[in-house]
Amino acid sequence: MIKRVAIVIIVLVLGVGLVQVSRYLDRLAREIEQQSTQDETHKADAIVVLGAAEYRGKPSPVLEARLNHALLLWLQHEAPYIITTGGAGGDPLFTEGGVGRAYLSKHGVPPENIIVENQGSSTVQSIVGVAEIMERMKLGSCIVVSDGYHIFRVKRMLQARGLKVYGSPRPSVPVTGWRGKWLYYRQAIGFALWRIGIPI
Fold first, then answer.
1. Positive or negative torsion for Cα 163, 84, 70, 51
2. Among residues 38, 40, 35, 36, which one has the least CA distance to residue 166?
3. β-strands 54-55, 58-59: how paired?
4. Which H or E element spans position 195?
5. Residue 13 lies in a domain
6. Which helix (H) or strand (E) holds 134?
7. Is residue 21 a contact partner of residue 31, using CB atoms and an 8 Å limit?
8. Closest Cα partner for 67 from 45, 49, 46?
9. pLDDT by residue for the chain (200 residues), tens digit each?
10. How many Cβ atoms from other residues are within 10 Å of residue 138's Cβ?
11. 163 in a structural domain
12. Nearest 5°: CA angle at 24, between 150 and 185?
């Protein structure tokens, strides 16, 4: 009898815990979705472009769209520097950050205005690298350019390093339906894991 009661109590506690976690992730996913459409462009010290796939030295359509948006902000004099991010991702010759730098340079941004973080193999690693670069250069604020669903998490990670951060999602067609919900939920899981010290 005591054993049965103990099992019931454990099941109830686990059930309540799962419900609480689920509610927390749902709330986070809603916040991420809200942030994904907000353009907070503001004068800053740097524009940070989150990496995406590159193909043999050429940016993928996603990366190109992010770089074009960063270029537009730079041309509007929103910040003097652009920081490109992203490591090799299995490519022995090119990094996402390096490809970003070459693309921006080809489109008129002077090399001295482009800073490259090319060691990160995940969002967390890239953001740690960006924060270290900004601290070293005494840059205190930035505009984050990425896909909308990505910005909430990146902003919070940079803010945790004491930086002033504004989000500016690249123009894109909104992802709707279950696929869109999954993008926000996945980011919520990534953010929650980062908060408890599990970087992904």
1. negative
2. 40
3. antiparallel
4. helix 177-195
5. no
6. helix 123-136
7. no
8. 49
9. 544 533 434 443 445 466 787 888 999 999 999 999 999 999 999 999 999 999 989 999 999 999 999 999 999 999 999 999 999 877 778 999 999 999 999 999 999 999 999 999 899 999 999 999 999 999 999 999 999 999 999 999 999 999 999 999 998 877 778 888 888 989 999 988 888 888 77
10. 7
11. yes
12. 35
Residues 108/110/113/119 CA torsion (nearest 10 deg) = 90
Total domains, the chain: 1
Domain of residue 91, CATH code: 3.40.50.620
Coil, strand or helix at 85? strand
Angle at 171 between CA 190 and CA 84, to 5 degrees: 60
Q: For residue 12, give Cα distances in angstroms to 4, 8, 16, 21.
A: 12, 6, 6, 14
Q: Give the Cα separation of 127 and 112 in Å (integer).
A: 21
Burial 156-192 (b: 16+ CB within 10 A, else e): bbbeeeebebbbbbbeeeebeeeeeeebbbebbebbe
Q: Residue 142 is part of which domain span?
A: 46-172
Structure tokens, 80: 């003097």
φ, ψ of residue 41 to 5 degrees: the values are: -45, 130
Buried b (16+ CB within 10 A) or exposed e, 92-108: eebbbbbbbbbbbeeee
Whole-prediction pTM value?
0.87
